[in-house]
């Protein structure tokens, strides 16, 4: 059944007049008559009684008219659904993020702005270590990633990774720690300190970055305690068990007995990146990346 023919049928069924129907559709009477004839042939039934003075629906025409508007409405709904999916108005967006990234000032604003512009898109957030996000992107388990990069990570030719914000590293320590009286500390000052750190096996970039910063100063951090969560790392410093080095955005975790100190070293920064697959035609991803890059200027 031709959709255009069905649309013509509905108009004629409502007007019961060929000239008025043709004018309403915006065609001449000839193509309207041909469309109705073709529809009748495809259905194997006459739909209208025609005389020189009148047009009336047959029983078959009445039966079709009872269904036709709903059929056309469903078709239009399907068209709208397809358009919304292609344009990114609906669907699903799977966003990977690191534990620390969730406390970055760009994260809540980015998610809020995206959900404001695409309220019908289902945003699924997955907390993953940076190395896990890279694997998940390649495996198409997530659509976009907010992660930190390790200089030792091999390049991934299929992934586009763009810097978003650079933030300083800070050291969290007990308020009565010997270094707490300083306005700024150096990585070298931590040579003899006990460290609380992420496990190496967790795939957290901060682990390898801290190792590299210490190695550059000629020592290996003395890790006495491991923890999976950023909040746990900072919470454990309140016990006096050791110090921990984290992105400055984690200063938002304010706990009694804990102070944060910035570093005097110029190389003590960490960069949050946004990642997605090259050539991904997903318009939902494109908008998310666009919003993230716009916010990059705001938080530069």
Automatic annotation (TrEMBL):
Keywords: DNA-binding, Transcription, Transcription regulation. The keyword Cytoplasm does not apply. Residues 1-58 form the HTH lysR-type domain. It comes from the Bacteria. CDD domains: PBP2_LTTR_aromatics_like. Pfam families: HTH_1, LysR_substrate. Belongs to the LysR transcriptional regulatory family. This is LysR family transcriptional regulator. It comes from Pandoraea fibrosis.
